[in-house]
TrEMBL record:
This is Integrase catalytic domain-containing protein. Residues 1-127 form the Integrase catalytic domain. GO terms for molecular function: nucleic acid binding. It comes from the Eukaryota. Pfam families: SH3_Tf2-1 (PF24626). Gene3D superfamilies: Ribonuclease H-like superfamily/Ribonuclease H. One of its GO terms (biological process) is DNA integration.
């Protein structure tokens, strides 16, 4: 049995991909991350599925959104994928679809306690040896962001300074807060959304929510955020909160902590 879902609204680059098709084998936990376009037809998806998954004779069963018995594994995988993809784009730069093959390899070659092995081993019956790290999968137990950050610690003294300026869906952003009106099962909540968000479905998985302990009157107004065609928005600085200097090998780099419009103080970022 496999689960399918999509990550949409990603920025378009030279290949014009704007979405990721996530396909997860629920037994072995192995996954495929396929860059796609929202303009693809059902025939395009069928050809891509046969080419990448080779799942002839599959039977499609449509599921209910945020139903953990059917899409829980896919939602958890998407959350992990977004975290790794965000880390890769921030630290490695470049286009997000260039990082997908490496991310898929790292995901499928990472140890999972629920199956006591890596998805690759569960799927093929043998361990995978990486050409960039000759270690035993069960011993290393490196997963996504840990591997990325450990590598960046060794090769990039500028990593603390050059972390920002990303836009669109790959930037971790929240709006709200909004009051919870109803609990939908164990892993989803229905929110009281304002009128300007009437087109958004009000039920959200807990992985998409962040608990707010602040003043409920401090609501980030969505009507003041102008979304561009590239699904990004202009970040306008409001105040400089702090200053610091990073001493590198051959020079010093000054940076400031900037408070941006429509964001809380906790979301202020350090900029060169």
């Amino acid at each position: 049995m496999i689960s399918m879902d999509f990550i949409t609204g990603l920025p378009r680059f030279r290949r014009q991909h704007d979405s990721i098709w996530v396909i997860v084998d629920r037994m072995t936990k192995s996954a495929h991350f396929l860059p796609v376009k929202t303009t693809h037809s059902a025939e395009d998806y069928a050809k891509l599925y046969i080419q990448e998954v080779k799942g002839l004779g599959s039977k499609v069963n449509l599921s209910t959104a945020f139903h953990p018995q059917t899409d829980g594994q896919a939602k958890r995988t998407i959350q992990t994928l977004e975290d790794i993809l965000r880390a890769c784009v921030i630290d490695f730069k470049g286009y997000w679809d260039d990082h997908l093959p490496l991310i898929e390899f790292a995901y499928n070659n990472s140890y999972y306690s629920s199956i006591q092995m890596a998805p690759y081993e569960a799927l093929y019956g043998r361990r995978c040896r990486s050409p960039i790290g000759w270690f035993e999968v069960g011993e290393a137990r490196l997963i996504g962001p840990d591997l990325v950050h450990q590598a960046m610690e060794k090769v990039s003294p500028m990593k603390v300074v050059m972390r920002f300026g990303k836009k669109g869906k790959l930037s971790p952003r929240y709006i709200g807060p909004y009051r919870i009106s109803k609990r939908m099962g164990n892993v989803a909540y229905e929110l009281e959304l304002p009128q300007e968000l009437v087109v958004v479905h009000p039920v959200f998985h807990i992985s998409m929510l962040k608990k707010c302990m602040g003043d409920p009157s401090l609501i980030i107004p969505t009507e003041n955020i102008e979304i561009k065609d590239s699904l990004s928005y202009e970040k306008i600085p409001v105040q400089i909160l702090d200053r610091q200097v990073h001493k590198l090998r051959t020079k010093e780099v000054a940076s400031v902590r900037v408070l941006w419009r429509n964001q809380f103080v906790e979301e202020a970022t350090w900029e060169a």
